[in-house]
Amino acid sequence: MAFRRRRPEVGGPPELYYDESEARKYMRNSRMIDIQTKMAGRALELLDLPEDQPCYLLDIGCGTGLSGDYLSDEGHYWVGIDISTAMLDTALDRDTDGDLLLGDMGQGIPFKPGSFDGCISISAVQWLCNANKKSDIPAKRLYCFFSSLYSVLVRGARAVLQLYPENSEQLELITMQAIKAGFTGGVVVDYPNSTKAKKFYLCLFSGPSTFLPKGLNEIKDEEESKESTFTNERVPYKIARQGLVRKSRKWVLEKKNRCRRQGQEVRPDTKYTGRNRKPHF
Alpha helix locations (H) across the chain? Predict the structure, then answer.
């Protein structure tokens, strides 16, 4: 009989599961980093934000900030909320650009109404379906989460929540609580015929109903067979992914270009930009 890996949600609350050991995996496991980044990219695509316009986004279950790094690279500002102190500490060590908040999404999103232009979440919402205490009622925690999320989004904004539902009943529970809170939308399924690459995205609209995006169907063979690799070096992923050496000329130019995409004032590039200067005595 084939072994089926146990779902992490059934082993205990997320603040205990995502400890320092798990946080290190999000720093050193290349496959995990690649999957997180691709899902963040797909979520941002489904948000359908205005082109060439920086937006203020919320990242729920931000973890070590991998998805937030993608948002920064695309020129957006973001705030991340997570229940794990170990994951947030790792995000701080990686010097992420977004603001970080320790909090339980099941108790609501603590921001003013209309604060965000959109929201993404990677592999987090399904945790609300498990009761770790007698006082935890999944339906109530889901409704508290979705009602507060509906409030903090500007009207007409979208929320794209990637999740791993355990079964169709759990997916229906999540969707019904979102609709009860005022959202419209539905579930987008990418690669429905693949056992490994299949992904669920709950696309929610905080305004009038619009068309629901279509899921992806074609998948490259190398994505199915890609293996994990590990490294002992603790380097920020957004730098390692681009192959840039910190403080080098290319690194400085890339950072200046990202600031320009965010609308910040940046001094013009010259032949002296990023040059190593001699020490002064």
Answer: 14-17, 20-28, 30-47, 66-73, 85-93, 138-152, 168-180, 221-225, 237-242, 249-261
